[in-house]
Amino acid sequence: MKRVILEVASNRPLTPLVYEMQLTGDTSAVTRPGGFVEISLDGLFLRRPISVCDFDDGRLTLVYKIVGKGTEQMAGLQVGTKIDVLTGLGNGFDTTLCHSHALLVGGGVGVPPLYRLTRNLIAEGKQVSVVLGFNTQAEIFYADEFRKVGAEVIVATADGSQGIKGFVTDAIRQTGIDFDYFYACGPLPMLKALSEATDKPGELSLEERMGCGFGICMGCSIQTASGAKRVCKEGPVFKKEDIIW
Ligand SMILES: Cc1cc2nc3c(=O)[nH]c(=O)nc-3n(C[C@H](O)[C@H](O)[C@H](O)COP(=O)(O)OP(=O)(O)OC[C@H]3O[C@@H](n4cnc5c(N)ncnc54)[C@H](O)[C@@H]3O)c2cc1C
User: Fold this and answer.
1) CATH number, domain at 151?
2) Which residue in 166, 227, 236, 174 sits closest to 208, CA to CA?
3) Are 165 and 132 within one domain?
4) Which of residues 54, 70, 89 is at a domain's end?
């Protein structure tokens, strides 16, 4: 974990409520897809956790949805603003667990951490199919970004306004993707349905309200098949067989 001051290099809407923010500065602590950062915001006691969408030397990309005071404040941050960020948090995805063909499943703002994961898997010579689930066409983001880095992209919308009508599990069933390992991030009901729909192994990123974000306060502890675990420290990524639904 490293506390750094990063500068807002861009901050633009992808949809009416979802923004992409690029930050520049010392990103040396960010090393693995699936990790997160914690952002300190004016007047808010708790930092806000946001997954790392992508990172390269000195640049960090975050994608976030406005749901309350903190994320609303983030959307108003101007280019050049300096913010206090804890970087290098969480235990991310393990790309070595996939041998040849990965299925990546993201729902809503569960999509961002899958982007860097896709880049890493493809760099390792693996085939990547990404299923992105949204409520409606207007909420879709990053489908083209995934395509540009070489992933097969399947979009599902609950109302059928684009792609396959239904949930990500409907899209997986209909397309019959043949994969050896899956990685997923999104709302809990989606993760549960996905785990139940396949007997293949996988890793899932869980979201939990958290206090400190680095394992001290124990506020985000959950029971797993191998005992109590902190989502911020041992997670947010857990193996399918460890999760007690
Ligand atoms: C490890 C981790 C990674 C995350 N990555 C992302 C990301 O990449 N993009 C993104 O948009 N969001 C992400 N989130 C969720 C994000 O942290 C919350 O949406 C944010 O903290 C809300 O802050 P706020 O002040 O805007 O809203 P608040 O005013 O704190 O809350 C507004 C509403 O959002 C709900 N809410 C707030 N935090 C959470 C949470 N952690 N889980 C579920 N519901 C919550 C509250 O119950 C409330 O209804 C992540 C959360 C975690 C734990």
Assistant:
1) 3.40.50.80
2) 236
3) yes
4) 89
Q: Are residues 128 and 60 in the same domain?
A: no
> Containing domain of residue 27, as a range?
2-89
pLDDT in tens, 67-109: 999 999 999 999 999 999 999 999 999 999 999 999 999 999 9
Query: How many A from CA of 10 to the centre of ligand 1?
Result: 21
Q: CB within 6 Å of ligand 1 — which residues?
A: 36, 48-51, 63-65, 67-71, 109, 112, 207-210, 236
- Residue/partner pairs of 75-82 with CB below 8 Å, 24 or more apart: 75/11, 75/13, 75/19, 77/8, 77/11, 77/21, 78/8, 78/11, 79/8, 79/9, 79/10, 79/11, 80/7, 80/8, 81/7, 81/8, 82/5, 82/6, 82/7, 82/8
Residue 28: helix, strand or coil by DSSP? coil
Among 89, 116, 135, the domain-final residue is: 89
Question: 30 and 132: one domain?
Answer: no
136-145 residue pLDDT tens? 999 999 999 9
In tens, the pLDDT along 161-189 reads 999 999 999 999 999 999 999 999 999 99
Residues 134 and 38 in one domain: no
